[in-house]
Amino acid sequence: MGSHSEPSGRAPSSATSLFSSFFSRPIPLYLSAALLRLVLLLYGLWQDANSPVKYTDIDYLVFTDAARFVSHGQGPYERETYRYTPILAWLLLPTAHKTGHALLDAALFSSGKVLFAAADLVAGRLIERILVKSMDAAAAREFAAIWLLNPMVATISTRGSSEGLLGVLVMALLSAVMARRITLAGLLLGFAVHFKIYPFIYAPAIVWWMDRENMGNGRPEAKKPSAAVPLLSKLTSFITPARLQLAAISLATFLALNMAMFTIYGPPFLQHTYLHHVTRIDHRHNFSPYNTQLYLASAFPATLFSSLSRIESVAFLPQLALSCVLIPLVLAKKDLPAAMLAQTFAFVTFNKVCTSQYFLWYMVLLPLYLPRSSFLGNKILGTTALALWVAAQGLWLQQGYQLEFLGTSTFLPGLWLASLGFFLVNCWILGIIIGDVGRRQFAI
Amino acid sequence: MRERITYVQKLGDSIEPSAITIEGGTIRGPEIHAALEDRLTIALRELPLELQVLLGDTRNLHIRWVSKAAYDAVSPLLARLPPGFHLFTTPGTEDVMSNRLCTTLSELFGDISCSTPAESFTSLPRDTSTQSTAFQYFQALDSLSHFIDYAKINLCPENDTSCSTRLDSLIRASSLDISYDAAQHVIRLTALWPYQRQPVHATSRPQYRTEVGILSVDKPKTLEAHEVGISGLLTVLGQDSKPSPTMFSFASRHRDARSSFSARFLTPTGLHPTLQLLLSSNQPPSSSPPHDDDGDTRCSPYAYLTLPRIVFADKYQLSDPLYLTSKNLTALRYITQPVDLEAPEYVMQQWGSAVLVELSPPPSPRGSSMQQWTAEIPLHLRYLTPAQGGYSTIDVPYPVVFWACEADEGTEFPPNPFEKANLGYDGLFNAGTVFWHVKPQPADSSSRLLVSSVRVPVLDLGKASWVNTGTAVAVMLGFVWVVWKLVAVYLRGGHEARAESEKKSQ
What we know:
The complex is a heterodimer of chains A (444) and B (506). Chain A is mostly helical. Chain A has 22 helices and no strands. Chain A starts with 10 loop residues before the first helix and ends in a 5-residue tail after the last helix. In chain B, β2 and β3 (26-43) form a beta hairpin. Chain B is globular. The N and C termini of chain B lie far apart (99 Å). Chain B: Residues 278-299 are annotated as: Disordered.
């Protein structure tokens, strides 16, 4: 890498030097990440005020409506389609505040977006902190920029989607675990699961990772042929104080939050935050491979198809087997961040419902894996994977556009095949991620 | 039981008494251009027992069927509703609606798809007046043929062919109202035939009193702005030997705006069809009260929609002023609560939703007095049951469009002989509001129907046989590939982090 002092006679080297000086200090990166979001936020305000087509995401209106209900002493679930923890509505309480001053009110209304954008920056900073353990700070910032300067991430949070909050929670959880701060990790895990359910998949990976070796107390366990170790002693050596502590604290946090919310808001809290996900039928078209089958099954409950074994009724099996058992078991001890990426990727890919917001769930973990991935090592592989991922999505979006806006019946075969194609591309990418984590052992 | 038959002609048309012949119980006259209203008033005890029991449980019940064929109306028979089967009701003292109501409705009208009142009906906003109704139901119903068959069997005396013949004429009616009010212990059946050329002809029946009116709209000098004048001839069959002239006036809440509109869906419709209303005039009705003291007009155009559950409006989308303005809308004034924004059509029991939107006419350019304009109502489709071919066509009934004008303070609208109340939208306005109806014109002149069709894309059942297997195979393929990669990693390096040094070295 070039440095500032290097004489820069040629254009490429001056570009390189600009590039490296941008990452040599934290300020330029974080300032431009913040500026990017500020510009998008202001642009959004302008578009909302001047165009019938809104920049602000529908979800943000749901959150802020819910916050308004809360500020009037009602429950957030008075707002239809509010399916989140009340804490989100509480966080957005300032948006419900009215001063009568137009400019101030606009700023207050945007305070939730500012919060989400700030969460992006904090998540980026945590990415850098984890990366810096295995590379120099400038390189760490280069990879953190994949998240921080990602226009998709910045757009999603400034449009008012709360996924950025999940990003910061997951990165904070990972940092706490890697810093062996068990209490903090337990609190974060319990809170994250309360917030959005899916982070529960990280629990088995973290617990499995937290062996005596990784927790840094004592020497590495003696390598014995595993058959020689009696099962019982294997089991007792698995149960460590640290693991018990994490389990107890995360479970207590999760339960305490739920009991508190239930006490305040009653059955609607349970119904909308959790039970809704059990009863929802997910018939509307989305990226999930199960989508077409779910539409069919919901329209003909237990008649036309009841004799056949229906794949969607066991959809949770491959999803949970991969994301909660197999991937944590095989990968967590080798590379916890990459294992969590693979888990999230598997969870989203095999989920019964999948929209582009879910991609953010694994995108935040991507910078931690990419530096040593074969996608960057092998440019052709990397370009192919990215191109396939984009193309498969594009194909689906094209079919979806025809359905949604032109009214063409593309459910079969177009949308169905496109979702299966996208699913298989994702599986292929997931396979390579898994292979990378395994191969790294031999790359010493 | 008693009957009232009324021919209503337009202003300026009238008939000479000499042109009428009355012989015994029969009245005959020349062909005239008129709308025909036939009203039967039946005491509760004269009804079939099952209906008596059912009505005994209700405080009021109004069934209003409107034909989807376009028809010409004439003052004062102007009150309109979207085509289809409407029901407004209030349960009795028990405050619960009998589940038999839905089955009885099916027996009477045929294809009525309500499951139980609790599941299928929607609540109307609570009103303090005792006249208002508490629940609403609507669905498309193309024809009264099932009702005609039911009535022939259950209402006509045996071997009475003239009774059946008269019931058969209902097939050409524009609307049928069946109203019951517990306070009066009577049920009123009012059928309306469109304004057209027809001979004057009626025969009395021995069992009851029949009154025939041949009327036309009149404008006596004493008529006040909020009143409708009527003059013509009245005859009580079997009693009068010649028609007696009459003239009267009354305050009417339903008036003619003397303009028209048509409705169609903008193409492509997609899953979010926009209903475009094309209105012939952006000016308030000429005879309506022009301006307030402070110069504001007291009239606004509105559209009232009864949307079958396949299609719905999103109240959140219709709350942004900029968005509304871009569609020439002022505001969403009423929408049935709640409206599920996500559920597919086939899991819902609720009939659908009623929507009242205030429209925002663009001002006329300087110099021109009247201007055609459009308003657009954005709607959303639910997913429908999969079908062969991949498409289902659904008909959305025309809305009713009217200018609502506030009458002068203190103006009263006592019940009049042609009164029609409980229409769904009248309860959403002050009692002093006058509805100036804009005439619906079919968008498609060949079909003459007051419905807008949408072709809804659905999953093509003909191609669905491979979906379960294909999905299963793809998921298995993906799963096996990922598991295989995991097994390969495990076989090469187990599940432990082998090299302690690795973390340090990187």
